[in-house]
Amino acid sequence: MSSGTAIIDEAEGGSQPSAPKRSRRVPKWPLALAVVLLAIGIAIAAAWPINVPYYTLSPGPVYDTSDFIDVVDDDPLDDGSGELFFLTVALQEANVFQWIAAQVSPRVDLAPRQNIRPEGVSRDDLRRENLARMDQSKTDAQFVALTELGYEPTYIGTGALVIDTVEGTGSVGIVLPDDVIIAVDGEEVAFRDDLQLIVPEKAIGDTVIVTVERSVDGTDDFEVLDLEVVLVEHVDIAEAPMIGIMVANNEPIIEFPVEIVTDSQNIGGPSAGMMFTLEIINQLTEDDITDGIRIAGTGTIRRDGTVGPIGGVKQKVYGAIDAGATVVFIPADNYDDALLAAGDDIIVVRVVTIDDPLEYLGVDLAA
Known about the structure:
Oligomer: single chain
Radius of gyration: 32 Å
Number of helices: 10
Strand content: 25-35%
Order of helices and strands: HHEEEHEHHEEEEHEEEEEEEHEEEHEHEH
Largest sheet: 6 strands, mixed
Strand order of the largest sheet: 4-1-3-16-19-20
Helix content: 25-40%
């Protein structure tokens, strides 16, 4: 028998001690990773509902103005016409994770909560004021468009209706909800935005006389009162004064020679005013003023045709680019910021009055 066979026989016979078996050890890192991930998940779930004192501003939906305005008895434009869009900003109270994300995203900005919804102002009050601002912008747009087209509309304001006062300001306990402001320091207040022309001319700390009409014991009778209010610093504009009130238009007297139906679909704020004006003009003129161009824009409109500044202009420019617009109309005060956001992706047109976009589009309403 060969030695080789003997070794095998001995091994098979078990006469030599066998090597000890090594037990398989289960690695611990998957369990540790699972514990870490679970802890992170629990921490995120716990922290997610906790808001920080900021709002995020990000690009909001882009809307076709023709979906919001209908000139009754007007013949619709051909399907091949261009489009007019108004731009929005999405506002959201930020939690800590959204705050962190906003630090690195060029498309998202942060605004202190106090600037958007001052202390003591409820979400319902803020919503009500924003809807009131939209209502005025719609009516102002109709008035401007009809005036530009040579009509003679009647639009008479009856004062600014107080929704609420802002906590910590001089108006608290002096000006009351449902008061109708008709003058400040003797200057007439016919519409809510008249306050935006009168008050900025004053200084922080000034005492102004706010003249109001106040209901007597909840009846239709009212008394006229002169109230002294000390102006405080504006929550959103550094070194600017404010009374510290939220207002809407009191019911104006309106007689328009053309029936125009506007449905803002529960969207608030005044920044669609310019684009609503252009849409009404477009529907009331024979030719398509867009000349087939996909146009976006933003800006408030005043009754004298002035186009005013808006918030969130960067986000609105990004929204216009995303919507495929080739041109965006921007108020003069927002122009520089809009250029930075636009880059080479869209043409930015600076607008001071409603005549500027009409001139850019080659529209001569006097012809």
